[in-house]
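Key result, reporting period 2: structure in, sequence out.
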């Protein structure tokens, strides 16, 4: 069973024509009203409302044969698990069969999505010892393995309703230190500006045995102001990419996490992530 991204509805905006190096034909300009958008004014706010509307996924379940979050063109390609920044990612595997994606943010810490750790039948968090992290998983092999000994989720997150989206993050503490210095990814503070190039890779429903990534997408902006804000992006990703980091390259060539993937749209490459600065602030305030 795949505990990948929640599948919530929106209209198809199509794929953008830009690669990681710059905007291209079809990519929204400043302010982001482009072909297919609801129109000028507040397109991101409207799209976010469609994406995150509570109960929409439950009322209109998406068949397993449908791959949400990809749009009309699929830019995802396998990537080298040993290369930066992919060497920091791994598969989060539940003993009950669910799987998501996670990234090392400390020697023994893995960042993922909270909804990945909810038991499907009971709607409660799974026990830590039933969660495994397989670093650099690839077709039955991995570069390291750890079992969770503790779980921490975003304050206010309700496993039964899998909401709010702004609290849909979790940190696993592993029994083994897998995060060597070159593998640990920092959380971005402050948040990168809109139109910043992103990378998004994960262990996704159609090819869960390899790491698939969209390397030509961008950050669009925030869904709203305040603590409930979600980070919006136009990366292609489907079920199984939940918990994956939105990756941003720094000026020194290193990599940082801008957000953790929470949900995707049905018919287009568009999704929402929990902003990294909010997660960093919560972790700093931990007792």
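The corresponding designed sequence is given below.
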């Amino acid at each position: 069973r795949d505990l990948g991204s929640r599948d919530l509805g929106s209209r198809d905006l199509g794929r953008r024509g830009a690669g990681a190096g710059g905007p291209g034909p079809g990519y929204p300009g400043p302010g982001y009203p482009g072909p297919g958008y609801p129109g000028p004014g507040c397109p991101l706010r409207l799209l976010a409302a469609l994406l995150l509307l509570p109960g929409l996924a439950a009322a209109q379940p998406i068949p397993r044969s449908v791959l949400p979050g990809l749009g009309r063109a699929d830019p995802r390609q396998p990537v080298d698990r040993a290369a930066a920044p992919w060497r920091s990612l791994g598969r989060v595997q539940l003993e009950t069969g669910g799987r998501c994606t996670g990234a090392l943010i400390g020697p023994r810490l893995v960042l993922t999505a909270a909804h990945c750790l909810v038991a499907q039948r009971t709607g409660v968090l799974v026990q830590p010892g039933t969660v495994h992290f397989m670093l650099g998983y690839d077709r039955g092999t991995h570069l390291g393995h750890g079992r969770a000994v503790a779980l921490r989720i975003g304050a206010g997150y309700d496993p039964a309703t899998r909401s709010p989206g702004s609290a849909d993050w979790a940190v696993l503490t592993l029994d083994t230190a897998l995060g060597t210095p070159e593998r640990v990814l920092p959380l971005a503070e402050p948040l990168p500006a809109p139109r910043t190039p992103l990378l998004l890779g994960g262990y996704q429903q159609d090819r869960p045995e390899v790491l698939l990534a969209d390397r030509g997408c961008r950050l669009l902006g925030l869904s709203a102001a305040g603590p409930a804000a979600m980070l919006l992006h136009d990366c292609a990703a489907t079920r199984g990419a939940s918990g994956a980091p939105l990756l941003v390259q720094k000026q020194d060539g290193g990599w940082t996490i801008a957000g953790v993937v929470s949900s995707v749209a049905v018919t287009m490459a568009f999704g929402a992530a929990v902003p990294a600065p909010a997660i960093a602030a919560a972790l700093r305030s931990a007792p």
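The helical segments are 43-52, 56-59, 276-284. The longest strand covers residues 207-222. This case is discussed further under Risks and Mitigation.
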